[in-house]
Each structure stands twice: as C-alpha cells, then as structure tokens.
Amino acid sequence: MSNQYNDTMKILLLEDDTVLAESLQEYLEMEGYQVDTVAYGEEVYERTFEKQYDLYILDVNVPDINGLEVLKALKDAEDHTPAIYISAMTDIKTITKGFEIGAIDYMKKPFDPEELLVRISHHLGTKEESISYGEILYDPSNGKVKQNDMCFYLSEIQRRMFERLLQGMGHIVSSEELMSYMEKPSPNALRVTIAKLKKKLGIEIKNIRGQGYTLETV
User: Fold this and answer.
1) Cα–chain-centroid distance for residue 97?
2) Taking a C-beta distance cutoff of 8 angstroms, is the pair 32, 2 a contact?
3) What integer pLDDT is reported at residue 9 of this predicted model?
4) Measured between alpha carbons, how far is 135 from 70 in angstroms, rounded to an integer?
5) pTM score > 0.85 for this model?
6) What is the spatial distance between Cα 131 and Cα 145, in angstroms, rounded to a whole number?
7) What share of the chain is helix, strand, coil (3-state, %, to 5)?
8) Domains recognised in the chain with CATH numbers
9) What pLDDT, on the 0 to 100 scale, is given for residue 125?
C-alpha cells in the first residue's frame, strides 16, 4: 500500500520502546515516508524547533513528559500539525483527553502497522490543492503557509478566518460570520485576531466600518 503524497510527508514518532520505534520507522519508510524517532517528550520540542513535520505519532506513556502534555504544549504554541496517539492505555478518560487536546486518532497497542498506515491514509491521504495568494502558498488541509521560503502554521481560528476571506476575496465578510469561528467572540477580540493574522501573513485586510472585513484581490 502507498499513499498519494508520501514522498514529501515527514513524520515525527515519539516512542520509548526501541524495538517498536525501529519497526514502525522501517515500515513507514518502506512506504516512502520520512520518519524521525525520539524516545523522550522533551526531544519532540527540540526536533519541531529545528524541522517542520506533516504528522506526529505520539505514545502517551513515555519518560519525562507524556504524549498528552507534549501535544498540549505544541497546540498552545500554535503548532497545529495533525497528531495520532498510540498507547496501551485504553481508559476512556485518557482517550477523551487525547481528542480534546486535538489528536485526530487514537490507536491501542498492540496494533498491526498496516492499520496505522490505513489510518494515516484515511486522515491525510486526500490532500487539498494549495491556494496561492500573492507570495503566499496556503494548504487548507493543515493550515500550513509557505512564504518567501519560510513555512509556518496558522492557528485553527486564523485558518478558518483566512479561508473565509479567501473565499470571499474582493467582497465583505461580515464581522458576525468571522466572530462565529471564535470561542469567546467580541468585536475587540475579532480586531485583535485580524491584526495578528495581518501581521503573520503580511497582508492587508480592510475593515469596512459597521460591516466586516475584506481581502483585496491580488
């Protein structure tokens, strides 16, 4: 089995069982993925600082910082790379917490590596076309932005707002609609979010007083 775009997909695997980590790495690399493995939660931060990944596979019960805390810290830092948990822990509380933090899947050990491959292909195998806006290349499947040879991610709220503004390019998108993407909506919070989006992307989003915001056609 091979997926549709694994020649460019980079995976970071957090697993302290050396035998399992090596076997999963070998299996996934045979399928064309690029896989880095680490045994400690702290190492995840070091690797993600140095390199951009397309997927995290995280064991929950690992030394120093467990997989749940690792993903929460990444999400808090606005790293929205998709993550799959693998763990022998099957209590509903742990599973629920994993999904609440933002995992896209949770697999119980032991599992067949083929099943993991199926899960990866299911979640990530239908990549959407990237969207160009000026010098920005935006991937709506994961919120990744490439600009001037730099790569970074938009937060979930920023991603949804940017997509909506792109869809309505040249037209006004109402403040009410944009605020519907926010957990605690308010005009002030919306202005701050739009300001951060403008600064991050280096684009002009115009405020049409009393109506909403518009992204000019380029």
Assistant:
1) 17
2) yes
3) 83
4) 33
5) no
6) 10
7) 40, 20, 40
8) 10-124 (3.40.50.2300), 131-215 (1.10.10.10)
9) 63
Q: Is the peptide bond prior to 110 cis by the omega test (within 30 degrees of 0)?
A: yes
Mapped onto helix, strand or coil, the DSSP state of residue 36 is strand
27 phi and psi angles, rounded to 5 deg: -65, -45
Cα 152 to Cα 155, 197, 207, distances in angstroms: 10, 12, 25
Per residue in 53-98, pLDDT tens? 989 999 998 988 899 999 999 988 888 889 999 998 878 888 888 8
Rounded Cα–Cα distance for residues 72 and 20 (Å): 24
| Residue 28 to residue 35: CA distance in whole angstroms | 7
The residues, any chain, with a CB within 8 Å of residue 133's CB and separated by 6 or more, are: 166, 203, 215, 218
